[in-house]
Amino acid sequence: MVVIKKSRYGDQELGLPRFARVSFSSLRSAQMDWQGQKRAEIVMQFMLVVFAIAGLGIGYTIGSFPTMMLTYAGGVVITALITVPNWPFFNRHPSKWLDPSEAERHPKPHLNVAAASKKKAPKHK
């Protein structure tokens, strides 16, 4: 099954299953919520520690430092592939931002400079 995708660059053929198309389209949106960033950080730290322990165990058992480093390097690559892209499970609580027209109707409050300068200065002896 070949899917024709309409884009601003012309028609593109995507020979991908539906779940892959959904994932790739969500990766291009480049949005991750705050809870998703926290979740990605926790997953990254956990996976790096697990791969470090696994690499140390494998390297010690085999008695090979290069094998230990390759095991850990592979773990870093796998961790990056899981935590760096914007997967949909990192955007379960999207932030709701105001539209620009709505934001213009509610301007920011301005700091009153005169009131700030009337504070009492400390007395020096």
Automatic annotation (TrEMBL):
Membrane topology: Multi-pass membrane protein
Annotated region described as Disordered, given as residue ranges: 98-125
Compartments, as annotated in UniProt: Endoplasmic reticulum membrane
Similarity-based family: Belongs to the SPCS1 family.
Job of this protein: Component of the signal peptidase complex (SPC) which catalyzes the cleavage of N-terminal signal sequences from nascent proteins as they are translocated into the lumen of the endoplasmic reticulum. Dispensable for SPC enzymatic activity.
Annotated TM spans: 42-63, 69-90
Keyword check for Nucleotide-binding: no
Pfam families recorded: SPC12 (PF06645)
Gene Ontology CC annotation, any one: signal peptidase complex
Key words, A-Z: Endoplasmic reticulum, Membrane, Transmembrane, Transmembrane helix
InterPro entries: Spc1/SPCS1
Organism listed in the record: Ensete ventricosum
GO terms classed as biological process: protein targeting to ER; signal peptide processing
Protein name in the entry: Signal peptidase complex subunit 1
Keyword Transmembrane helix: yes
